[in-house]
Design a protein that fits this description.
By secondary structure, the chain is of the alpha+beta class. About 25% of the residues lie in helices and about 25% in strands.
Length: about 475
């Protein structure tokens, strides 16, 4: 964290040996100018204030009290202006062994609330209409953040389970090193205050900049079709944070920035095995109807899983489990199906990994608890594949931006270039930025990869995203 130091000193020449120095170390940048100005005005001797009264008022003790007061005021204003209005909650199946309800919060996280088993049926029955949900905010790392949730039903209040300990010392937002009042009969010293640290990382307010002001192109790509799958809410395994938002925002970029007509964009949210097969069937029919005069974008955000016996990679439908691979789509089968259609070019964006890892930490598969390196599948036809991660790596989220890390930089480049970018430049941009940012925000490697069919190997880098 960057600390900003400032010093104020006001002397009154008509009073011998009377100076007051204030050294302030402010840890919250948003409050720095506000508190500085208020403290400066408070410390000045007013026109109608006697010198003796000024000396009684402007002391180290009163200074600390004033800092607490100003901190509380500014903190309250800051949090009130940064509260989120877009939170959506989904109650998952009750866990009777631990007496908890998982609560999935769209595009944020999954929380767990302790509800006694005797109260659980009533809680579930009244969830939609009678349970009042209150997110509790605090300031962490100079940002407004949700640190807990309260769920109220009647006179009962249920809190989310976490280890976050909110800061009870209001003046902890500012460090006041030793100050001296240089007056012969009034020398006061105070020791610095320290900021209590949050024990766990709270939910940060999401920056939605990339989702807004999407560039609008005048180019119309009437023969380009996009098939977009966002699998977030799985029925039997952990969710994939932000996958729905990934799919929806990518579809908007396809329409506005790449110029695809809305009817050319097929979006599948929480797609089952049947829906995925249906999408591939629709793609084949379109190709036949246009006699191959089409371009295709295929996008997937969701879980991928490996076959632990042969390391083959699979897409995980929203209604499947990693232990039932017969209900999952082999990645080789996807590439074979896409590669066999008659199309001028097919670009695949795969924001998933196939090592058995979750988009966040942890595993969704593998009793050994270790990531598996899936074998690489051969790409055929006029196909280029952008994959979010290599080998046994995980495809991570970028929580502060509300997207998968891979998808965020895909969208960012489309926004910066207004869609007028070669696949080579897009690949270089995504690989560099995802690799660098993953080390910074996740402390783990994530290396996007690009693979192509043999016939596309020498030409794909110079191709553009379907601009005619």
């Amino acid at each position: 964290m960057l600390y900003v130091y400032s010093r104020f000193s006001w002397c009154f020449p008509h009073v011998p040996h009377l100076c007051f120095g204030l050294h302030v170390k402010i840890k919250f940048n948003y409050a720095k100018p506000l508190i500085e100005e208020d403290i400066k005005n408070w410390q000045k001797k007013s026109e109608f204030e006697k010198q003796s009264e000024w000396k009684k008022r402007v002391t180290a003790v009163n200074q600390n009290l004033k800092v607490k007061e100003l901190t509380k005021e500014n903190k309250s204003k800051y949090l009130n202006t940064n509260k989120r209005a877009d939170l959506r909650y989904v109650l998952a199946a009750y866990d009777p062994e631990n007496e908890t309800f998982p609560v999935y919060i769209k595009n944020v996280d999954t929380l767990f609330i302790k509800v006694p088993i005797a109260q659980a049926p009533t809680f579930k029955e009244k969830w939609k209409n009678d349970v009042k949900i209150t997110p509790n905010y605090d300031i962490v790392n100079d940002r407004a953040a949700i640190v807990s949730f309260s769920f109220k039903l009647g006179n009962n209040v249920y809190k989310s389970l976490n280890n976050y300990v909110p800061d009870q010392n209001l003046s902890a937002n500012i460090d006041l090193p030793e100050i001296m009042v240089d007056v012969a009969d009034n020398k006061v010293q105070t020791k610095p205050l320290s900021l209590q640290k949050a024990k766990t990382q709270p939910v940060a307010i999401i920056d939605r900049t990339i989702d807004k002001d999407i560039p609008v192109s005048s180019v119309k790509s009437s023969n380009t079709f996009a098939f977009i799958i966002g699998n977030e809410n799985y029925q039997n395994v952990a969710s994939v944070p932000f996958a729905v938002n990934d799919a929806k925002i990518f579809s908007e970029y396809c329409h506005k920035t790449l110029g695809l007509p809305k009817e050319n964009i097929k979006v599948y949210i929480d797609a089952t095995y049947g829906k995925i097969l249906g999408a591939l069937s629709t793609l084949k029919q379109i190709s036949q109807a246009y006699k191959g005069d089409i371009n295709v974008i295929f996008y997937y955000a969701g879980h991928g899983v490996p076959n632990e016996k042969n390391n083959e990679a699979y897409l995980l439908p929203a209604d499947a489990t990693p232990s039932m691979l017969e209900a999952c789509l082999p990645l080789s089968g996807l590439y074979s199906s896409i590669g066999s259609i008659d199309a001028k070019q097919v670009i695949v964006f795969m924001d998933a990994c196939f090592s058995g890892s979750r988009r966040e930490n942890g595993m969704i598969v593998s009793a050994r608890g270790v990531a598996i390196k899936p074998k690489k599948d051969i790409v055929t036809g006029n196909v280029v594949v952008f994959s979010a991660a290599d080998g046994s790596e995980t495809a991570y989220p970028y929580k502060e931006k509300g997207h998968g890390l891979f998808t965020y930089f895909l969208l960012k480049k489309l926004k910066e270039s207004r869609g007028n970018v070669t696949l080579g430049d897009l690949a270089d941009y995504i690989k560099t930025n995802v690799s660098q940012k993953s080390i910074v925000v996740n402390n783990k490697s994530q290396t996007p990869t690009i693979s192509s069919s043999a016939q596309m190997q020498d030409v794909w880098r110079t191709m553009k995203l379907f601009r005619k």
